[in-house]
Specification:
This protein is an all-beta fold. It has one domain: Jelly Rolls. It has strands at about 5, 10-15, 40-45, 60-65, 70, 80-85, 90-105, 115-120, 125-135, 145-150, 160-170, 180-190, 200-205, 220, 235-240, 245-255, 260, 275, 280-285, 290-295, 325-330, 340-345, 365-375.
């Protein structure tokens, strides 16, 4: 039975589900007996963002598959296209989603655009991004072209019960009557005893619904439009219910734009084509303390498959024709004091060459982050 707890700044929905992972050594919230270094509270969870082959060798207990979805641009402010899938009710140890990129008509469309897939929480109505993928430079592919990727989405399995609504977004303008990108999803559910139980999902950052760049992202370095402002990538205060034993942050941050601005704190360095083709990093601030571990916003395309265009150039956490490089971080339970903690994600100071946050080519990051709570 699902129950809802409402807190001062964030709502947490209590869910019954599990996800693969190691058991926590903490006994509950605000564990003052944990002597973790207060600048070492965030650790890489060492999870792969996606696989080229199914990482589970056994046959699934059940499968749920969508119809092919044609990708076309949705006007700003318009409702996103949706589809509904029916999942069997039950308890699952692991859920793998096969994400298939495909062709509509005589072949896929030309360019590498952002695609985002969301799943709706029936209790809150909130949409959570379940994957982000970039379309390929598709001009050399024909109507039979497909590419398959496998993504572990076990953390969402409490939402995958009964009739489930999905929505998707495509940021491109290159589809036509004859050629368009498409996608299909197939969920493979593996029944079994949970290794850890999902208590709730806390939405932390969402540039999709609060973007200022015109492309569902936050402009970077534009004067008067600070990406680190409270309504964007600023500090969040999180209330944690009793019984939570571990926390994992799911962060998807991809860089876009062709800005020729500067990093004023790095002497003599002028980045070329910020933020898509420039390596960047982010730091965590927990309870006012900067953490030792940092995140890298860059991704090697050295092993990308043959396409047209600049498919083999390294990019800011994504590759044309691939899912985005989602990153996972474990947050130590000793961060929680008296049932709460604060978290802030900080980027290096950057000064854009543009004056408007929605200028063509402005540096920007599309950011979606959820905090998953377990016991």
């Amino acid at each position: 039975m699902l129950k809802r707890l409402t807190y001062t700044l964030l709502s947490i929905v209590l869910l019954a589900c599990s996800t693969e992972g190691s058991e926590s050594t903490n006994s509950g919230t605000g564990n003052n007996g944990n002597n973790a270094d207060t600048s070492d509270l965030v650790k890489d969870a060492e999870r792969k963002p996606f696989y080229k082959f199914n990482p589970v060798s056994s046959l699934p207990t059940a499968e749920v598959m969508s119809e092919e979805q044609r990708l076309a641009f949705v006007n700003w402010g318009a409702e996103l296209p949706t589809f509904t899938l029916t999942f069997p009710e039950g308890e699952y140890k692991r859920v793998i989603m096969e994400y298939t990129m495909g062709s509509f008509g005589s072949g896929p469309a030309e360019y590498d655009y952002t695609t985002m897939l969301f799943v709706r929480d029936k209790e809150t109505g909130a949409m959570h991004e379940i994957t982000r993928a970039m379309t390929p430079f598709g001009g050399i592919f024909d109507s039979a072209w497909q590419k398959h990727f496998y993504i572990d989405v076990t953390e969402f399995c409490a939402l995958l019960q009964g009739d489930v609504e999905f929505a998707y977004f495509y940021g491109g303008f290159d589809n036509s009557e004859n050629r368009a990108h498409s996608f299909t999803v197939r969920f493979m559910l593996y029944e079994g005893t949970p290794e850890r139980e999902l208590v709730g999902i806390v939405p932390l950052y969402d540039s999709f619904n609060n973007g200022n760049s015109g492309y569902r992202g936050w402009a970077y370095g534009v004067a008067g439009h600070d990406i680190e402002s409270p309504e964007r990538l600023g500090q969040r205060s999180v209330t944690i219910p009793e019984g939570v034993e571990s926390m994992e942050l799911r962060l998807s941050i991809t860089g876009h734009g062709h800005d020729m601005g500067i990093f004023p704190d790095i002497e003599g360095y002028t980045p070329q084509n910020m933020a898509e083709f420039v390596e960047n990093s982010y730091t965590f601030n927990i309870n006012g303390i900067t953490q030792k571990n940092t995140g890298r916003i860059f991704y090697s395309n050295a092993d990308n498959y043959l396409q047209m265009g600049t498919y083999n150039y390294d990019r800011a956490n994504w590759a044309p024709g691939n899912p985005a490089n989602v990153q996972f971080w474990s947050i130590d339970m000793s961060a929680v004091q008296d049932g709460t903690f604060t978290i802030d994600i900080d980027l290096p100071r950057f000064e854009s060459s543009f004056d408007a946050p929605n200028a063509e080519g402005v540096a920007q990051y599309i950011v979606m982050a959820d905090l998953f709570l377990y016991r």
